[in-house]
Each structure stands twice: as C-alpha cells, then as structure tokens.
Recover the amino acids of this structure.
C-alpha cells in the first residue's frame, strides 16, 4: 500500500501546502534579516571608523560640526594624536600646518616669465600692459620682486579670520613693495642700500601682520631688484664706473693710511734718536764741565805748567797710533823752524820700464 493510501496519515489538503510555503518564506526572511543586520553592523563600524583621524606633529586640526567649530578658544584646536569626528557631512576636519614654512611672492613689479623661469624677451620700450614695475622715490622705474617666508603661529586667526589667508599675505607683500620703493631713490634701491630696501619691506609687512591679526611670524624675506631690461647696459656702465671709483678711493685711502703710518714711525724714530743724542750730549757736557772744574784749581795755581801738561796729554792721545813721531821744539828767538825730509824717488813701475825699452 502506498503512503498516500495509508489511512493513518493526514491527507495533503490545500491548508497543509500553504503552511509549508509560509514556513519556507519565514526561514528565507529570517536569513535575509540576519544578513542585513550583519551588513548594517559592518556599515556602522565603517561609519564610526571613518571618523577617526590623526593629526601630525607639524599641524593642528579644527572640527566643524554642521558648519560651526567645536569648542571655544584654544580648545578648538586638536593637537598631534588620534581624534574622532563624525563623518562628513556631520563633521568636517580642517587641517592647519603650523610648523611648515609657507612661501608667498609678490605679484606686481616684475616682468612676465615662462613656466621654466626664463624671460620671454622684451621690446625696445617697456610695455605697462605686460611688464610689471614699481616707481622709486625719485620717479624712476625698476623691476622688483619680494619673496616672504612665514610660519603660522595662531592657526585660529590665520584660518578663520580670512577666507583666503595666503592671498591676504600676498596683497600685504605687494603693498609693502610699493610703499618701500616710493621711499628709495633708484641708486639706493639698486646699488647702495639694497639691504635697507628689503628691511623696509619687512617692516611694513610686520606692521600689517599685527594690524590685521594674521597670526603668522615672518621667518625671512628676499628681494630681487633690477633696472628695466631696456636700459640695463646703461645701468651696468654706471655700476662699473662707481665700482672703479670706489676701488680707486679705497686704494688711495689705503696708501694714505700706510704713508701716515710710515711717517709716524719715522717721526717717532727721529724723535727717539734726537732725545738719545740730547741725553748723550748733556752727559758729555756734564762730564767735561766736571773734568774742567776739577782741573781749574791746578790751572789757577800754575797756568803754564798746566798748559804744558795738557799739551803733552793731548799729543800722547793724538799720536798714539803714529809709527814715527817728530817733535820740533821752539827756537829761543821764536823764529819759525823748518823741517826738511829727504825722500827717495819711487822706483818706476815695471810696465813703464818695458815700454821704454822697446824701440
């Protein structure tokens, strides 16, 4: 007998088939809901994990929730480390570099350049539509370009007081360049006081930073200033002449200094030698005076004897190295005596004798 014909089994009617389909649908729905829950949990985890962000030591971060910063004052800044924020569009993280050196360059006062930095060339005259320039204090035209390097010290002021803070800094550099150029004649701006020209620009920039509360600190600044390219040769000629003049003046001053030094040395030497001779002469005079003072009593006692003794001493001193000494005593009548010496003639030279013997 087949199972369908078994009188003990319930008959497979329409209600039984409907219950089986409901159970299968319920099992399928439960499985689907389980998968959906797992997916939702994973999405929630990803959603939460996407809000984790890391702030490096060289930067600070500010979290905006629905367009408004979270916290007040310094609490708005997120320092280095791991932080959490809800994903966009609930929260938005703005990173601010504080240790990185920012660089801006003036956008006025310089001629156009190619992307590689080279000059595209120029015409016979300056074209104000393309060539940038600044006017000096004496009404001349020069090309000038200022480069500023700064560091952000107040991230909140720098980021939230201005929509485009770098553009504000660039405009400040442009104004400082125009202001400084108007206070310097062309010679000082290009040759004589380029450092002063640069310092004047930095002073004006620093005043603007304090006035506008930009929240930055200037690290360094550079300045390029050249004459218009159309008259560069004339400026170079003037510069060469000034350098030659300066070199000549320096050489003259150096020679004058050395001459004065040598003259002063010679003067001191002459004075020193004169003082030494003066002291020696005075000492000799004192010795002679003392000597004659000591002999004065002898002279007064017997002048003739003193004179003869002094004469003998003098002759002895004078004739010390003489090989032959001849003394002519005075005659009794006081007449002048003559001394005649008989000297042999010098023998003729040998060369003269040979010449005389030749026929």
């Amino acid at each position: 007998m087949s199972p369908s014909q078994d009188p003990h089994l319930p008959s497979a009617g329409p209600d039984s088939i409907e219950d089986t389909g409901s159970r299968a649908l319920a099992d399928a729905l439960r499985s689907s809901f389980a998968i959906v829950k797992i997916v939702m949990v994973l999405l929630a985890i990803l959603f939460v994990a996407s809000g984790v962000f890391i702030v490096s030591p060289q930067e600070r971060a500010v979290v905006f929730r629905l367009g408004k910063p979270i916290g007040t004052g310094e609490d708005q800044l997120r320092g280095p480390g791991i932080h959490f924020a809800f994903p966009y569009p609930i929260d938005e993280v703005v990173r601010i570099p504080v240790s990185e050196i920012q660089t801006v360059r003036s956008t006025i006062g310089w001629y156009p350049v190619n992307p590689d930095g080279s000059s595209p060339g120029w015409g016979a005259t300056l074209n104000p539509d393309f060539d940038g320039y600044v006017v000096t204090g004496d009404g001349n035209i020069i090309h000038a370009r200022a480069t500023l390097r700064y560091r952000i010290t107040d991230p909140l002021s720098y980021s939230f007081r201005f929509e485009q803070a770098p553009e504000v800094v660039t405009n400040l550099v442009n104004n400082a360049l125009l202001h400084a150029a108007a206070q310097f004649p062309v010679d000082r701006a290009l040759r004589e006081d380029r450092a002063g020209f640069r310092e004047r620009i930095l002073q004006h920039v620093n005043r603007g930073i304090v006035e506008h509360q930009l929240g930055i600190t200037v690290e360094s600044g550079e300045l390029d200033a050249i004459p218009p390219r159309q008259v560069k040769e004339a400026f170079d000629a003037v510069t060469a002449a000034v350098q030659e003049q300066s070199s000549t003046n320096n050489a003259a001053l150096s020679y004058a200094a050395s001459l004065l030094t040598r003259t002063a040395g010679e003067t001191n030497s002459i004075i020193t030698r004169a003082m030494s001779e003066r002291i020696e002469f005075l000492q000799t005079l004192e010795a002679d005076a003392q000597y004659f003072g000591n002999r004065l009593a002898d002279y007064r006692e017997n002048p003739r004897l003193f004179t003869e003794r002094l004469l003998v001493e003098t002759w002895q001193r004078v004739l010390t190295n003489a090989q032959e000494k001849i003394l002519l005593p005075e005659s009794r009548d006081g007449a002048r005596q003559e001394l005649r010496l008989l000297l042999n003639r010098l023998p003729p030279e040998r060369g003269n004798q040979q010449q005389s013997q030749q026929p």
Observations:
- The first strand starts at residue 52 and ends at 55.
- The chain has a mean pLDDT of 80.
- DSSP finds eight helices and ten strands in the chain.
